[in-house]
Amino acid sequence: MQAITTTHDAAHGEAQVKKIWKAFWILFVLTIIELGLGLSVYYIDMEANPSETLILFLKGIICILTLAKAFYIISIFMHLGDEVRNLIMSVGIPALLFIWFIFTFLYEGNSYRNLRNTDAHSRPYIEKVQEHPVPAMKEGEKN
Amino acid sequence: MMWFFLMSDSFTFGAFLISYGSIRFSLNEWVDHNYVFNRFPLTEANLPLAFVSLMTFILIFSSVTMVLAVHEGHKMNQKGVEKWMILTILGGLAFLSCQAWEWTHLITSRHKVLVDGVIQYWGTTTSHNPWGPKVLFNNELVATPGPVAFGGYFFGITGFHGFHVFSGVIINLVMLIKTKAGDFQKRGHYEMIEKAGLYWHFVDLVWVFVFLCFYLI
User: Fold this and answer.
1) What's the CATH code of the domain at B175?
2) Could you say which residues from 60 to 79 on chain A have a Cβ atom under 8 Å away from some Cβ of chain B?
3) Which chain A residues are within 8 Å of B198, Cβ to Cβ?
């Protein structure tokens, strides 16, 4: 916490304010791009045969942009870089565990879905297609 | 100490979001967020993503005003700190009001859903999800009940985040009062503003990920 109580001369202060606003505009633009990609996913989804790979690719880009935003918030707004090196390490290294957590738990979820869909691999997976439309009934009628 | 608290808090949020992710991966059907979140106050138009982007911009902007308050604190400028702290608090309150509107809208607006061959009208709650896959019924596409987990995760995680925003607003209010009383001038530094700022940026950081997980992908 040494960096906190230093006194700043005027020129340095000006540069600091500029840096803050620059970070704001970067975050702003990144969010706009994310929204644009999100909306294009929405429109691709409405087409007759949406391409799954394209949608997955766009969502991947959105995830990367989010990580970039997180980086700007932590480095410019929270200025973690100005702290003592040991503090950076003791906060940063445990946070790296998230990489492992995300991969394992998503893999776990996916495997659970496969097991359920195939009764633990005892039968092939048949996608549930609605063959017969639900018969017409009057509203409120009991079946 | 603030950094260690934030790290533990990030593990809480991380656990919530990862559990949400693994449940979502384990189900064949999930909801289409572009249809669930497509309303804006005072209009009936179909505007996917619009309202939540407004909320995101509000939060990013209040993060900037917070850094500027911290910056004025470095210069020992009491009036500047007060000005930017007030703007930050207003930003937090605006975000909370947006969230209140969104929750009210989700819970109270009814949607047609086919339950056991009967049409019912459901709101989106922790026990009802009217956004499941659509089926043909009386020559009309009608939604069926979707996974209940959606409501639980959505209200749970955004609620937990909203509660963080709320406590952030309270902390900022206390800091504003202490600034106005001249406590930090007497003390010779504005370190407390810096710490409140760290918490506030963390709330913004979490929102970036909540925004990603619930509204974008």
Assistant:
1) 1.20.120.80
2) 62-63, 66, 69-70, 73-74, 76-78
3) 78
